[in-house]
Amino acid sequence: MTGSYTLPPAVADRLVRLATRALHNRHLMRAPIWLYRARLGFLLGSRLLMLEHRGRKTGLRRYVILEVIDHPEPDRYVVVSGFGTKAQWFRNIQADPRTHVWTGRRHRTPATARVLLQEQAAASLQRYTRQHPRAWETMKPAVENTLGAPIDERAPELPMVELHLTQP
Questions:
Q1: Which region is the signal sequence (predicted)?
Q2: Cα(71)–Cα(87) distance, rounded to whole angstroms?
Q3: Distance in angstroms (rounded) separating the CA atoms of residues 80 and 47
Q4: pTM listed for this prediction
Q5: How many Å apart are CA 125 and CA 73, to the nearest integer?
Q6: Tens digits of per-residue pLDDT, 6-35?
Q7: Per-residue pLDDT at 24
Q8: Assigned fold of 45-165
Q9: d(C-alpha 147, C-alpha 70), whole Å
Q10: Alpha helix (H) ranges present in 38-87?
Q11: What gap in Å lies between CA 83 and CA 70, rounded to an integer?
Q12: CA-wise closest residue to 37 among 4, 13, 15, 63
């Protein structure tokens, strides 16, 4: 079977509402952290990672689960800030780009975070939308609800961060 499949509008609307609520549910979004700490991150697949960063005011370790939207090289991951520039993890990595990344097969690997330029972000987002059209169909309106603004895939205002692993 070829071609694309579009969800019926009622189903799509329900999925968008559920995704929006999930993004705002702190406990749900933080639940996978214990899996990564127990070295069971592989159970979540390759589209998620855990980012360890430092609080910009406290200096304490902080953790966030993020979706990988691009993996252009073995030592590079691109993640998106679904809450824009106001996300705490995003603000923290701007203050201190030294982080650690946990993936299914990597445990607390040092990495350096870098905010992508708009052209780089657009290229990553376009690759993601081609590779995962159904996921994007649901997540785009949910992220737009969270941001309070539409997303243009050709020039996204959505902050994206490249995590460059500094050791294998």
A1: none
A2: 22
A3: 12
A4: 0.78
A5: 16
A6: 667 776 667 666 666 655 556 666 678 878
A7: 58
A8: Pnp Oxidase; Chain A (2.30.110)
A9: 21
A10: none
A11: 18
A12: 63
